[in-house]
Amino acid sequence: MHFITALLGVYRAEIGLLILACMFVAFVRERYSPTVIAVVGACAYGIFGMLDEKAMFSVFSNSAPLTVGAMFVLSGALVRTGVIGRVADLIMTRAERHPRIALAEVALGALLLSAFLNNTPVVVLLIPIMFKLAQATGYPVKKLLIPMNVIAVLGGCLTLVGTSTNLVVAGIAADQGMDRFGIFDITLYGAAGAAAGIVALLCLSFLLPSDPPSIAGENGGTAVQDYLTELVVPQDSEDIGREIGALGLFGRSVQLLGLKRSGDIRRQGLETEELRSGDHLIVRADGAAIMTLRESGQFELGVAADSRTSAQDGTVVEAMVAPSHPSIGERLGDIPFLHALRVRIIGIHRARHLPGPDLAETRVRGADRLLVAGGDDAMRALKDNPHLIGVDISRTRAFRPRKAWIAMAAMAGAVLLSAFDVVGIGMAAVIAVGLILVTRCIDPEEAWGAIDGDTLILIFAMLAVGLALEQAGSVTLMVGWITPLMEVAPAWTLVFIVYFAALILSELLSNNAVAALLTPITIALAHQLGVEPRPLVIALMIGASACFATPIGYQTNALVYAAGDYRFADFVRIGVPINIVVGLAVCSALVLLG
């Protein structure tokens, strides 16, 4: 025991680096998630006495991960209020008229959106849009997905809030005594990288594959569920006499399929048709759109045996039809529980196929998924029905379009407060979260669900690892090794070295882990060499994010890798030259203008 204690005293810094090396090996092997490795690594430093309890828990006072969490919530509010969906509808409308111009507009939109929103939900939103744009323009979808992802990642490098990595580096830098970063302090250098990256994409597009994906479907591999439903025009509706096309309901989320009037169904020429009392609009809609229509009360939804049963009454549950259901093959309108209970079927989903011709006439199949509205007694009876599987309250929520302006104002306010240095971005983001919660743009449970807990725990754990390396003397030891090499190199090369070191490590490891680890080392190195640390820290920020050469280089890379059915080599072929071009542009801007 005394020997171990003595060993820790003499070789404390070296043992700290040994633990770090073991973490790197574990990161590369990927047998465990990066979060698990980071947490175990922090625990190892604690076990060996390199990180005491006070120091370990001090990382939870760091503003960086809290700011990241707040930005997740703000992004979730924009989704909940329908802002993101509305933007997607506008894009698709433009694509139908001017598909090639729409491609340029999508690229610009991805760049700007990613500058202020977490770029992961931006890419998730754009993946199905790129599949539809590929159909409209005739371009192979594999030539669109990777460029869209590259532009979204470059957009995240335009502002401090564009990526969680930027916020992590800025938070650690502030803790190290540097002046606080403003939201647009990195914009000039990120813009240089974005411009170079876009030019490189245009020149190197021939390196992108053109074969069709073998696994992706119409939605690009997303899990959006579309339902068949009907919108029934009430007798006292204010929409009676209006043209269907003037309702403003239809877009990407709600598609008009037909008009049922007096038992007859029409499919063509519906835009100019005037609505009458009792008309049934047959539509295809996703779950959120159906719930939004239900809350609006503009139409009655679905079918019921009793016309007095309203879709607005009670709650909505999801239920799957069991293969043993006695009504398999019969009309949905004749299903027994529809007549035995006061419920209303407001939608039916069928995998890989939209049923029809309308809701009531749909023939029931096993595994059909139903949305059913009704009172508490009816819901309990449905749960006891042995022929229905997984009956539970629907987790799909309605959009809140009337609160959209509040969500946008909250996001814009956070950006402006930080931009004009009224308060830091962390405080501004927290204030914005308070505003959207008190105005119910998003419910609390949804707000906390929008936070990527895995990312936050990874950040906290790596902050603890970085602190342990400082306390163990490992940072000082590494700086001592590197300093003699740096002293003989021209000062301007330091920016390039830091940038490409962060880039190479981030292609293999977690971006946030690399950022948390290298930031204190970079700042200590700058002080040791007597140079201004700010350009080096900015190089670290962008270098740790702008990684395009591997599917694991950035979280959005993995999304398009799966959706587009790419090969690993596809990313290497196009990503390596883009990495080099963007890196040279950013570093040159830092050297000349920083």
TrEMBL record:
A GO-annotated cellular component: plasma membrane
Membrane topology, from the record: Multi-pass membrane protein
Keywords: Membrane, Repeat, Transmembrane, Transmembrane helix, Transport
Pfam families linked: CitMHS (PF03600), TrkA_C (PF02080)
Transmembrane segments: 6-28, 35-51, 63-85, 106-131, 151-174, 186-208, 404-437, 457-481, 488-506, 512-529, 536-554, 574-593
Keyword Transmembrane in annotation: yes
UniProt GO BP: potassium ion transport
RCK C-terminal domain residues: 215-299, 304-388
InterPro entries found in the cross-reference section: Cit_transptr-like_dom, DASS-Related_Transporters, Na/sul_symport_CS, RCK_C, RCK_C_sf
GO molecular function, one term: monoatomic cation transmembrane transporter activity
Subcellular location: Membrane
Protein name: SLC13 family permease
